[in-house]
Design a protein that fits this description.
By secondary structure, this protein is α/β, with parallel strands linked by helices. It folds into two domains: 141 residues, Rossmann fold (3-Layer(aba) Sandwich); 162 residues, Dihydrodipicolinate Reductase, domain 2 (2-Layer Sandwich), CATH 3.30.360. Helix content is 30%, strand content 23%. It contains nine helices and 17 strands. Helix 5 packs antiparallel against helix 9 and helix 7 packs across helix 9. The longest helix has 20 residues. The two termini are 15 Å apart.
Length: 366
Amino acid sequence: MSGSGRVGVGIIGAGVISEQYLTWMTTFPDLDVRFVADLALDRARAQAEKWGVAGFGTVEQLLADDAIEIVVNLTVPAAHVPVGLQILDAGKHVWAEKPFALDREGGRRLLDRAAELELRIASAPDTVLGRGIQTALRAIDAGRIGRPVSARAVFRSPGHETWHPNPDFYYQPGGGPLLDMGPYFLTALVQALGAVTRVQATATRARAERVIGSGPRQGTVLTVEVDTQISGLLEFAGGATATVEFSFDSALPYAPVLEVLGDAGAMLLPDPNGFDGDTEVFPWGGEPVTLPVAANPGRGTGVLELARAIRADRPERASGALAFHVQDVMLSLGEAAASRTAVEVQSTIEQAPLMSEDWDPTAATL
């Protein structure tokens, strides 16, 4: 099913993250954003009216629109699999928010159903498709630091209750810093170093409760049901290794780290939770070099890349298979922390092709 012309898109979930998707998808000429659905119809109406989207209403109404080919699933993590299956059963392609699933069984069900129905399922994070990380990946591919041998990824923050009006799910199964922020860093590492084969980890949680710090629910106490500090060691199929740390327990200012060391130099990559940002290259015996990146569109880039892939009848880059491997790695880290043993990662993945340097989301190509 490749079709022709602009690709019709619908959104399920009109919460906080929908703002970022709608900001950009409504500006891409190759996409036709047609419908916003939510359990709260007033919220769906508000987002549709704000962004000039013609339709709003229930999930069933969205899925009944034959002109919608891709559905963007922005529901809470626990609903990603059942809603994703509902979308596929309606004959539509899926763009899934992360995490891809809460367990391997759910992830496999999504992949298997999509394959059975000959539909596409792709997944966030699409930040890895942005000019920032893509510039860094091209530099690694070109040998700017030689053969990559190790990497380090660090995300630390005090927790999302400091800014999010409804942060409950970040502290429930499917949340926590590993499943929330891990996809950004781990997807970039897999694209830079290849598939992960083995992991070790430790995990803790600093507090049993969190307090919402802003919005109408300010002062509400949340029970913490997940680990909020995870440190891990990854081994990659090509022989490289990486250390990773994901934390909601840090009072330090947000300062993400993503670095790759090679046998001919080192590289500081931009924040993988963003679409732009400069890359710093430190060659052995030479002067540091900055690879600047211009401003870049944001969330929704992966939906556009999926749409163009459907029309061109080629594989999408931010595939469900890639998201499943990253999910498998995260689940393996959790299992390694719980068992205090090394865990072999059973899934594997090939690195997706790099984006063309002249790939232009603002161009009308369909």
